[in-house]
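$ fold --in a.seq
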Amino acid sequence: MGNANIPQVYDQNMDRVAFLDKAKDIGYTEVNNDLWTARFTLPADDPKNQYCQPFNYVEIFDDKRRIELFRIVDEDKEREVKGFKTYLCEHVIVTLLDDVLFQFHQVGNIGVFTRESINYVLNHQATRRWRLGRCDFNHQFLYKWESENLLAALFSIPRPFIQKWHFTYDTTSYPWTVNLVRAETEIGCEIRRRKNMQGITQHKSVKNLVTRLYCLGYGEGDNQLTIASVNNGLPYLDADTIPEYGIKQSIWTDRRFEDKASLKSTGQQILEELKHPYISYTVKSIDLFKRTKQSFDEFREGKMVRVIDRHDSIDIDTRIMRVDKPDVTKADVTIVIANKDRNVAGSIAALQERARINDTYAQGSETPIIIPFNDNAEPGFPAVFEFFIPADMININLARLRVQLLPFRAFSRAVRGGGGSTQTSTSGGGSTQTSTSGGGTTTSTAAGGGTTQTTTQQAQQTPSTTQQTQQSSTTGSGGQQVVSGSVSFGNGFIGSTSSEQGHRHLLPFMGFYGNIASHAHSFTIPAHSHNVTIPAHGHNVTIPTHQHSITISNHSHNITIPNHSHNITIPDHTHQIEFGIFTGTRATSVSIRVDNNIVPITGSLDNINIIPFLRRDGGGRIARNTWHRLELIPNTLTRISASIFLTIFTNSRGGENL
């Protein structure tokens, strides 16, 4: 780029196309941490007007000092005797207005530092014009944007900082560089009466003085974000100037804040600026830098300046908020200084309006939700239910539980089962004696007699067994003689005798009776056989009417069972299933756990507040973006019907456009 003291024009590809040697009324305005502007005029008939097209770039110089690179945005044409055109320009940081963060974006928080957040914004440029250079801060604030232009997003990043900060730029190389540095704290220049001060105007206002500031962020009504939970329960911040000015309350609302810590940090910075009356000075001065080329005589926005006017008892050190030089060919310069930084929100809002970005975001709404749950349970198997609380659930206004204990419910009877073999446990035997019982006599029922005829048999002849011839003789002995056998006499009489010693046997023998002395007989029986003939006959048996008597004497029984076991085999088989609704036992009490916290039950199960028992995150809020667990433990087998009723406040973001 050139370094002459005349404006130079570049096209959108950063190729230099013209030197504006006929430009006049070249001026610029530098604003601390805000958008700079520049202006110049050309004769209407200057052919170089063709290069001053909207969105082309102009490099502005003050003498040989390069001010900055600007972009042409407006053109005014005036027609007099000799017409001319006036061009209005803005610092090229305005190119970040060309790109947006479409819909919702979130970056930052723990582990994500300021440099990463700035790069997140710059990485959304369609054309990579800007890169991050120096960054003096290492904060971990959470940032959220919705349909925001990149310039507004970039300027919002340092707003929560307590330290003073300053944006600087380097546009001498491409891509251009933006730096976020700590603001200067040492005096860098001076304005002194009778040295370079031509005049000074003081303006003091207490209209915006605030000593107590309420801070509100995202949401509406009872659901709006406050700082109470991170500020000892107080939704406001108090300044140390209350003893001097009293309590002057105000409410600051910025719905872009959804993080309490960031909201509080920014509120402290704003209160620091508002706790004193606003005092500003407009100083008309001589730009001695054109002569001395000394840095101490150079006025640039953001520098600390010492203003001394003994005549009006002014001796202050403050920051240059604005430098306005209407004509670079002259030494006149107007400096605006103040005892507090200017709030950049106004200019950012103007940029948003110009970019047609609505700064009022959708805030969300309160929504009732009913979550039903039904299951069978018993003491060893509680009914377990989990429900999800999403990250975009800003507030949980109500969380109530209703529990009903109903009879256990089944939907079928009998199930299919295979056979098997099982052995009972071995059991010892034993001996058991029955109780003693007396005997007795029992008479059976009388029954009539009768005659029974056996089966008639046919006559038959049965031969006897043939016997061999035998000889036998009696033995005489001492006057005793035994005679046995058969005697055959000549006349055919056959008799049987038997004699013992001392007895007399009378045998009829031809009419003769006599004594037979002791003797013996010898008999010879030849072999012979006998034939027996049984004629056909039958038997008649007659049983008269009679009864039986049974007598059981007194007695007892001993029973001994030895050690034994039983084997049972059940073959494979199936059971027919009967479908239906079958009920069983019902519990009389239930224990409740929410996120493993025991919920005391003091009355009805219809309206139990479970908010105090829901799991919390590190900040003490009910944990979001996670599942919460409900356990219902009955005292016996039962059916449980439960419902969770939530009243929640959610924002309008999240999900996909399906």
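$ fold --in b.seq
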Amino acid sequence: MKASLWLYGLFFVLWGLTACTGNAQEIVLAKNGRSDYKIVIPKNPSAIEQHAAAVLQGYIQRVSGAELQVVKEEKGDNSRSIYIGHTTKGNEAGRLGDGGSIFRTDDKDLVFSGGGKGLIYGVYAFIEEYLGCKKLNSEPALIAPQKKIKISSHIYDEHKPQFVYREVYYPASHDTEYQEWHQLQQLDYMGGIWGHSFNKLVPAQTYFAGHPEYYSQVNGKRVPSQLCLNNEDVFNIVVNELKKRMAKDPDASYWSISPNDDGGYCQCDKCKATDNLYGGPSGSLIKFVNRVAAVFPNQKFTTLAYGYAHKAPRNLKPADNVYVFISDIDAYRDKPLSVEGSALAFRTDLKAWSSVTANLFIWDYIVEFTNYLAPFPNLQTLGANIHFLKSCGVKGIFEQGSGDTYGEWAELRSYVTAKLLEDDKADPRQLISSFLQDYYGDAGRYLQQYIDLQQDNLIASNHKLDIYGNPINEWKSYLSPEFMDQYNALFDNAAAAVAGDSTLLGRINRARLPLEYTALQMARLYGIEKNGFIIKDKNGNWGVSRKFADRLTRFVSDCKKAGVTELAEAGLRPDQYQEEWNRIFAEPVIPTKALGAPVSLQYPFAPEYPAKGNLTLTDGNCGYTDFSYNYLCFYGVPMVANIDLGKTIAVNKVIMHFLDDPRHWIFKPVKITVEVSSDGAHYHTISSPITPANNEDDTLSVKEYTILNKAHLAEQIRYVRVTANNLPKLPSWRYREGKRPMIACDEIYVQ
């Protein structure tokens, strides 16, 4: 009888526990819009503790309809509670470090702890994992409504960020909730000074005129390209400037002391001696940064191992409070950094720097830098690259995307990269697939096919994926007209799958912008050919296609709706892109008797810019002001082009266009010689003018040269040979080590 009473009592207790928690293995936080729980914060809560409590309260209400009260902790209160921050139950923050978090259950209670921003990171992780919500973009999070929120009564989740610095540079990163949800940071806000900083610390416009000795000595001349890092006044100016900035911004985490985005490091005797001692110009840089860092031992400093300073110094280590940013800017992106041949120098630098410091950050690029909207099929490398960098001991990664403006797959790239920075072992394909389904609904499967097809086409083409590329360069590879038709068909299917949903259709139209941009850009390459923007009317006159002009107008409008503010870093705004096209529309098609004529070259053109090969010079299409397409470029050698007109004709003049773009080391020819022949064996010169000098001027322009055949108006000519001589060396005002002068010609017209 006593045994029976005991068993009955035990049953009653277990039944009571089940009534409170649902069953012995779960905790019911809310049911049918009600909850027995409250959110408990410390008696003197910090701002982040109050913020975390409010966030959790808001999402529980949005998911379940139950509004939990937020209260300050009181002794002796044994009611069901969710503890946030440094309460009597949440005292683990001290050992977690900045960004670390713990979520655990304690009998019937829930406890959140975190170091620094780790507390809010942990709350958002709980909201995603246990409440089923997702933050895909800067738009409001996706909510998964639940009549009953239940979790296990035995949970212990501890998380520490695998990188101390994590940034994904896309528009969504400016959304505070998106940052906190995905545990991201922004160094330009964390840092008192960010990026290239020499000119911020010692501005040339302030000091150069009176003190040229503060700046680089290059080839015996002082120029304001970089600082003279062995000048004591420069050191004092930098220290004083930092003191003033630190006083204004005491909460800043990092301060950059980094070279300008230029070459021209100092080669004065003192700097040269330091560089020789430590094996290169990074010696002067690290020595200088270490000196400054010693003045501020409680501050953290960053510097850039970039450009001339990419190699690690010998016998010199960065100070413990100095973090070195290494750039992988020169690597192609079609293969992971761990195996890509062009990344060998980066891997070598990474290994060398890791031997002298454990404080390594990486400046990585995940977008076509020169065309933010261009298709850039590198999604398959994102996970492999982050995993590789983590295995190399890297502590922080800056993933440079399109920045403040919308770029190709901006939402997808930002989300997937953020998840991989949080967990480098996550499956990138699964992340992509789930995002496409969540963000695009039933259209997601077609967009997945589009991504896969484009990726397969890139691999099959054996083309390299260059962050300084141009979609026009891929007219024979993964962006050929045939492939473009297939891609557009998949987008048509995607739009049809969600035809009744204006929100999803808007997202699909935004994702389609790269294909529209590619078609517009390609039209410049094709010009008077199929898929070009110039057509012949019924009278045989060339003119701009009305359909094309309307398509351009729609594209510009759609860009504005999508948040496209510029098409590249410091590039054109959509309205400026329209204006650029309007200028192109206004340029007449120049008639030529050499249209389609074969061209032979004595010296090869620059392989980086193949355009249409030799035919570029006789395809009838301008290159306008962009050297990356429709121009044949030559460096180190003259352009010697021989055109076969196919039959003898009267030639009155020869017109040609050369680009003048000193910012890209492209200059006017110093001399142009035009020779003609009737048989291809015997040539005579009709003109050999000296072109205007390449004076100091960075203005971008196209120079037209017209060579008249005054002496031989009646002569029958079949062959025209044009020789354009390059500068023998870079002018001092545009000198950069390792660069050579280039000439670029887009067309040779024969009339």
